[in-house]
Amino acid sequence: MLDLKNLKKTFNPKTVNEKVALDGLNLHLEDNDFVTVIGGNGAGKSTMLNAIAGVWPIDQGSIVIDGTDVSHLPEHRRAPLLGRVFQDPMTGTAATMQIEENLALAARRGDKRTLKAGITRAERAQYRDLLATLGLGLEDRMTAKVGLLSGGQRQALTLLMATLKKPRLLLLDEHTAALDPRTAEKVLQLSEKIVTENRLMTLMVTHNMRDAIRYGNRLIMMNDGKVILDIAGEEKKRLTVENLMTAFFKASGEEFANDRALLS
Known about the structure:
Rossmann fold; 4-stranded antiparallel beta sheet
C-alpha cells in the first residue's frame, strides 16, 4: 500500500516567488489500486510524484510504501520500490544503447555488478518474448539503438523497463502527453495491460479527462496541493467529463483551469 500523510512542500519559501505546491496532502492506496490523477494548472500533481520518488524532499509529512517509511530516504534508496515513466519519451532510456542492452540494465537494477557476460542467451529469449507482447515488432530489432525508435515505441519500451522487476508502485507522469492521439491510445492500452497482468499499484497523472475517467479503478482530483475529489467504483464508471467539471467546481469553488485538459 501507499500512505501519504500531511505532505507539505513549498518552493522558494519567504521570497516573492514562494509557491505552496503541496498543502497537507493525504492519500491512501490499497494494493492493486490503479489511480488516475487530474487537476488544474499548478495543482501539485507532478510535485506529488516527485515527492514520492524522492526528487524533491518534503517539508513535512510522511511517505510510506509497502510498510517502509521512505520520507527521508534519498532517491536511489527508494528506487527499488518504484517504477516510473516520464512525459518525455527521451527520458528513462539510454538512447545510444541497444534495445536489449536497455532491458538488461532494467533487469539488473539494484543488483551488484559483476564481470559476467552482459546478456545471456536465456535473457535474450526472455526479452524477445516480452517485446513481442507489445505488438510493435521490436522483438526483431533488439540490437537497434533506442535513439532510432519513435516516441511511442520508446514509451512502450520504457513501460517494460519500469515494470520488469515488478515495482511496489508504478508512477506514470503524463506519459502520453508528448504523443499523437493514436499512439497515445496504444501506449495507454499497453499501460493498462501491464498494470492489470502484474497487479501493480499505480498512480497515473494525466491531463486528459476522458482518459482519467476511462482508465483505472479510482480517480482523484487535486487542487492547490491537496486532494479535493476521490471517486471510485460504480460512481467512477458513471462519470462524464461534464459532471466531473461540475464536481470540481462544487469542491473547489472555482472553474477548472487546465488548457490541455479542456482542449483534449
